[in-house]
Amino acid sequence: MNASQNTLRKPAVVLLSGGLDSMVTAALAKEQGFDIIALSIDYGQRHKRELSAAQDIAKRIGAVSHSTLSLDLRMFGGSALTADIPVPKEGVGDDIPVTYVPARNLLFLSLTVACAEAASSSDVFIGVNALDYSGYPDCRPEFIASFAETARLGTKAGVEGKSFRVHTPLQDMTKADIARVCARLGLDPAWSWSCYDPTDAGTACGTCDSCRLRRKGFAEANLEDSTAYAA
User: How far is the C-alpha of 47 from the C-alpha of 33, rounded, in Å?
Assistant: First the structure.
């Protein structure tokens, strides 16, 4: 890449959890010509293994920086991911599941916008998707649109007319679609971590909602998920 091409690249802050969706989102942002500032949140999640996956992904996709912010939500609890509540293994239902973490994406997007404003970036990426998700209200398009307006109203950049663009490239994809994009981008699924309830041996359980949705997506796409599952 020559110098003139390099000056055309813009920074974007990507919320990188370490899961499949965030990995694909980060790679898509890179494909679109952004320099990736990766931000991960250590919120006391029981599947802390995803944070090491995020670190590995950031290196593999060539992020210009990667930061992990500590925000221990265990002090609030209210979720199977942050409290001593069993992770459900019976499958995905229609109700908001107990793995929902209260206001998680609201908090995380606020931190992502703060990071972006400090870095003079107007673009943030998050890997939410509405068609094939676990029922979380903070993954819906109307929430994302509302948050973008809140960010405009509540920041110095927004007051000065520099609105934030909240990119959700996976918003209308199924997990099968995401698996196909993962393959097209040449990403190894095993780099990412989706399991909510890792085994003592350090493998994905294979039966929690997140594992079920992920495995179902790869199966429907007729693609191999290279992740090691216990079940």
Answer: 31
Distance CA 124, CA 63 (A): 14
Contact 37, 115 (CB under 8 A): yes
Nearby residues of 28 by Cβ (< 8 Å), 6 or more positions away = 125, 169, 181, 185
pLDDT, position 176: 95
More confident residue, 90 or 80: 80
For residue 70, the one-letter residue type is S
CA dihedral of residues 168, 150, 57, 227 (deg, nearest 10): -60
Global pTM?
0.93
Which residue, 182, 171, 193, is CA-closest to 126? 171
CA distance 165 to 149: 10
Average pLDDT, stretch 99-109?
A: 95
**203: Cβ contacts below 8 Å, ≥ 6 apart:** 228, 229, 230
Cβ distance 30 to 36 under 8 Å?
yes
